[in-house]
Structures are given as structure tokens and as C-alpha cells.
């Protein structure tokens, strides 16, 4: 069967002497693998369509649920700026790997595609990469069914001001319930306010948010704890981002 879909390249790998296999995230058909013949050749008209972060229209033939074979395609947004900057490329790669590892094959959902598209566009347009990616992480947690409970105690439902954040239990705990998680993390009012904003905000509506370095540092620790506790992913791109942070601190 012949398919025509809009997709974003979230993974690209060499296959044989001159070919590539790309994984694209689509709004209509979930995550699909497509073979692009001759993509590694210097004169290939399809080479640009296989670049990471590329948003394009892909026409391919596919039998059943197997690998598709590209017939032709058109680039809608190359996002070349992301590939030319090490920091931006690292954040964009993390977003793509996170979605790739979380989204199951054939799991259809326009939400996943739209949030990734918005994330890459935000990174390209100069939005704060760390803030952008933390918001994307929040959307991934919510789409996967693990969105944190932040407006009331995850244990008793109280709307009193929370005492701690419990990534293990999936939300905030009030003072009466904080004993349920002795490893609960304290959170400053500014960071909690930002977390609550992220829970309600669609990435497509992200504006220019000025966040203090101390708040971003606290946000990183808390979001990492949520990601580790709820999704338990061991991502190569995440480790690389950690190495970049250490390098910048030095």
C-alpha cells in the first residue's frame, strides 16, 4: 500500500553500502520505519530527507506492518540550525530519543507528533533549550499516563500548600502525608509554580519565559527524578547532556 504522511525524522541509521533506514514520527500512523535507497550517495535526491529533525512529507510503499520503502518526499522544515549547533543538536536529539523510546510502534497519536514538532520549532526559534525540553518532558509524562499531580496532595487530595514533591508517588505531598515518602524533595514556590504551568501549557503556546538559573537547576533535578521514577529510561542523549553540563561548569 502507498502512504503519504507528514513525519519528523527521530532516528537515522546506515543500512548496507548506500542506504539508510529512518524512523519517522507521524501524526496519523504513529512511528514508522522507512528504507531510503541510495541515501548515502553524494548525489542522492533523498539524502536531505534522512537528516535528523527533518520535518517532511514522505511517500512510501509498505506491506502490512513491515518496513516502508521511500518513493519520494518533500522537506517542509529542515531544522538545519539544530544540526549546526552542538548544544541545540544535543537537546533536539534528547527530545527525539525520548519520544522514540516512549512511543510504541503503531501507537497513533497526533499529540506526540505535535509536541515534538513544537519542541523542535521552539529550539530553532531561540527559546531557552532547557526550559523547552523540560516542558516537552512534562508532555511526554502526561501522554504516557504518568503526568504528575501538582495541584493537590497525591495521597489525600488536600489542596493545602505541598510540603514535598514525590517523583516516586507521582506528585506533591502535603505536610500530613509527606511521611509516605521520606525521600520526598523540597521545592521552592517559584519552581512549583513553573511545574504547574508546564502541566497546563501546550508546547505550541510556549512564549519567551525568563527563568532564573537557580530555578532551572532545581527544575532539572525534579524533572530528572520524575523521568527516572516513572519511565525508567536510560538514554544516551541524556548522558551526553549531563556531560555537557559538567563541561560548562568547569
In what order do the strands lie side by side in the largest sheet? 1-2-3-5-4
Cα end-to-end separation: 54 Å
- What's the average pLDDT? 93
- Number of helical stretches of at least 4 residues: 7
Considering the protein shown, what is the CATH homologous superfamily of the largest domain? Recombination protein O, C-terminal domain
Total beta-strand segments: 8
- Overall morphology: elongated
CATH topology of the largest domain: de novo design (two linked rop proteins)
Order of helices and strands: EEEEEHHHHEEEHHH
What is the CATH C-level name of the largest domain?
A: Mainly Alpha
Largest sheet, in brief, is:
5 strands, mixed, barrel
Q: Which percent bin holds the helix content?
A: 25-40%
* Radius of gyration, in angstroms, nearest whole number: 20 Å
Proportion of beta-strand residues = 15-25%
Function: Involved in DNA repair and RecF pathway recombination.
Family: Belongs to the RecO family.
InterPro entries: ARFGAP/RecO, DNA_rep/recomb_RecO_N, NA-bd_OB-fold, RecO, RecO_C
Organism: Paenibacillus zeisoli
Task: Offer a few descriptive terms.
250 residues, 2 domains, five-stranded mixed β-barrel, 8 strands, 38% helix
What does this protein look like?
It is a single chain. This protein is α+β, with helices and mostly antiparallel strands and 250 residues long. It has two domains: 2-78, Nucleic acid-binding proteins (OB fold (Dihydrolipoamide Acetyltransferase, E2P)); 82-249, Up-down Bundle (de novo design (two linked rop proteins)). The N and C termini lie far apart (54 Å). It contains seven helices and eight strands, in the order βββββααααβββααα. It has helices at residues 80-84, 86-102, 110-124, 129-143, 189-200, 213-230, 236-249; strands at residues 2-15, 19-26, 31-36, 55-61, 68-77, 149-153, 164-166, 171-173. The longest helix is centred in the C-terminal third of the chain and has 18 residues, at 213-230.
Amino acid at each position: 500500500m502507498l502512504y503519504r504522511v507528514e513525519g519528523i525524522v527521530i532516528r537515522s541509521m546506515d543500512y548496507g553500502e548506500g542506504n539508510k533506514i529512518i524512523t519517522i514520527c507521524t501524526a496519523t500512523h504513529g512511528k514508522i520505519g522507512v528504507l531510503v535507497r541510495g541515501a548515502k550517495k553524494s548525489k542522492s535526491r533523498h539524502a536531505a530527507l534522512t537528516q535528523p529533525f527533518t520535518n517532511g512529507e514522505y511517500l512510501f510503499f509498505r506491506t502490512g506492518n513491515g518496513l516502508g520503502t521511500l518513493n519520494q518526499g518533500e522537506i517542509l522544515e529542515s531544522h538545519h540550525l539544530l544540526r549546526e549547533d552542538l548544544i541545540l543538536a544535543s537537546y533536539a536529539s534528547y527530545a527525539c530519543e525520548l519520544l522514540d523510546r516512549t512511543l510504541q510502534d503503531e501507537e497513533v497519536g497526533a499529540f506526540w507528533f505535535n509536541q515534538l514538532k513544537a519542541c523542535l520549532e521552539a529550539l530553532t526559534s531561540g527559546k531557552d533549550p532547557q526550559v523547552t525540553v523540560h516542558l516537552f518532558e512534562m508532555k511526554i509524562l502526561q501522554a504516557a499516563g504518568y503526568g504528575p499531580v501538582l495541584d493537590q496532595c497525591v495521597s489525600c487530595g488536600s489542596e493545602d500548600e505541598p510540603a514535598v514533591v514525590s517523583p516516586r508517588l507521582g506528585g506533591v505531598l502535603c505536610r500530613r502525608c509527606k511521611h509516605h515518602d521520606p525521600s520526598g524533595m523540597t521545592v521552592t514556590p517559584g519552581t512549583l509554580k513553573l511545574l504547574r504551568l508546564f502541566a497546563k501549557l501546550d508546547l505550541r503556546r510556549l512564549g519567551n519565559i525568563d527563568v532564573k538559573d537557580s530555578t532551572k537547576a532545581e527544575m532539572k533535578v525534579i524533572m530528572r527524578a520524575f523521568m527516572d521514577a516513572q519511565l525508567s529510561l536510560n538514554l544516551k542523549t541524556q548522558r551526553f547532556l549531563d556531560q555537557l553540563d559538567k563541561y560548562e561548569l568547569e
